[in-house]
Predict the 3D structure of the following.
Amino acid sequence: MADTPNHADVNEMNFEIALKQLEEIVDKLERGDVPLDESIAIYERGEALRNRCDALLKSAEAKIEKIKLTRDGKPAGTEPLDG
């Protein structure tokens, strides 16, 4: 789902803030005491928050590297973790 203008702030959030807001939305929806119109609106925001968390996690994974060692156990540089 594409971000709508009222969800533009999501793109500026760090992972922890986005995740906390997403958890709050899940709690509200699970309680079931939110009017339908509000449920739809917070679900859409939750989707934007989920997308932001996913993008931040993928970015972090791409930055993680492992140290390559020579046969005698000395560091010889780095390579992608999944490489």
Notes: The CA atoms of residues 29 and 83 lie 40 Å apart.
